[in-house]
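Below is one record:
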Amino acid sequence: MGSLCREIVTLQLGHYSNFVGTHWWNLQDASLTYDPDAPPGELQNDVLFREGQTFGGHITYTPRLIAMDLKGSLQTLRQEGSLYETGKDPTAITWEGNVMVHKESLPTKNSFLLDLDKLDKGEILAEVDFDPTPVPHCSGTLAMETVNSRLERAQKGYRLEGSVRVWSDFLRIHLHPRTISVIHEYNHDGEAHRLETFGQGEALLQGSVLEDLEDRLHFFIEECDYLQGFQVLCDLADGFSGLGSKVTEMLQDSYGGRGILTWGLAPVSHPDTTPMKELYHLLNYSLGMVHMANNSSFFCPLTLKGGLGRRPAQPPSFPHLNYDPSLWYHSSSVLALALDSLTVPYRLRHNSTPMWEFADALAVSGRKVVAAYGALPFPMMQGCSLPDALGDCADVLPWKPLSACPKLGDGHCFGQSVTLKGLEGQSLVSQLRPGMQPPTQLHSLDCGEEVLASYINAHYPATPFSVQLVSSPSKLTPPFPQIFSQSLGPQGFLQSQAPPPKKRSCAVSSLPVLTSLQSSPALGPWLSELHRGASTLDPRRIAPSFLSQGPELTDFQESLEQLHLLARCYRNDSGGMMCSSSEEDDDD
């Protein structure tokens, strides 16, 4: 295939999804190339970004994105952004009578946002003697090349763990005025008017909310030449699961020939949770998953929770990450790194796989729920080869669960997509001296794709899979949290000798990442456990308000039955895969 650009519209539904999305867009921005003489990168940026122009004639480059959140969730960020001038005079008053002005104190900005403001205005940070050339005002993402270089030269060690309240506290790019949609019917904070249940979310997508979403979709879609589909990031734990179910249903009805890849997001913990809210979360997980899976090309949960049931295991431990699972700022950064790799196949400049083909290869025979795994970072010594690194993993796969679904370890898989990102400058094959015997079969292969494919095939024999290698790493720029162990060097590779504590000379600026997206028999018992947990709850007795705005009890029970049948699709026996609803169930 050539370099035809197949555009994608991204939707982010809910506060945690916007946390993950903000980190993800920051990663995409860091990889943009502004030098017109530089060779084109491996990833086609126009798949995700759109070019525009301000009223002042400045060229802009902004995400093709719709981000929905609740009233009070933006803090210092203006809903229309600061990139385009609207032409309205906010001081114009036509009323001739007495006017009483009430001033509300503005939310305070953290150190990162204050520095961004200074750079946007062409000011010089005190930490370093910058080139005084001002950053062009209202120049969108194109101005971020200067911002990136200046922030990196400032060597600022932002520690935002105590100051990040909302996702806009670490947003580093400009957004289009059509991007942010605020749902005013529900509050982000407080005890009253909270979007807590699936039925509340379902009921939202009508009237003005539906019209607003349709207008935003039409704006972004009408300028696309070859729309390949939608990627939807949606909160699972609260009422956004119901809203996401209706949104994906609308996308399927209106754009059924396009790909709809839905990523269901769930944080490890909620700061204001209660036992009753935890029951709501379980019911929202169950209903949201079965409805969004039904309406999407595939559905992939993304979470660092140890499980979605009432007694989850501990969050996964990554050998070279020191992250706090309870901090949304941390956990969302880990998931964004994984998403940066998981989405590579349909973002490539050459030989990309369209979203619908990518999904069809995984969601076979009704198995629309897939699971993600990741090695963050991919453990590789500086200066070693890919066969050496994979050989060091021995018989243990290097990735950890990113969907709360543990690996069965039996080598069975219905389909798999593996992506290795970031071995730029490293050797993909073994560098053996003439006449030297290869120590392993991997060391005898001639290209990196063969090395990785041989390794995957050894662990998953007779399983259809695809592998993708991309040399460019995930580039980390402020304010990505420095959650990495001292064993990693600046490019994210393992060092033979770690520096003494607190003696690292510079931050980790890039990272190699290995991810896997799987349709696996492991999802069967995992979905069955979720079904059992939700089925034991009678919302009429223990949570009567859960069904107050829908769904009806019969619809609720029917959805749980669909989840039960979905779990049975992942059964595997000696004769192969089965997806029969008539088979006797011995899992429940």
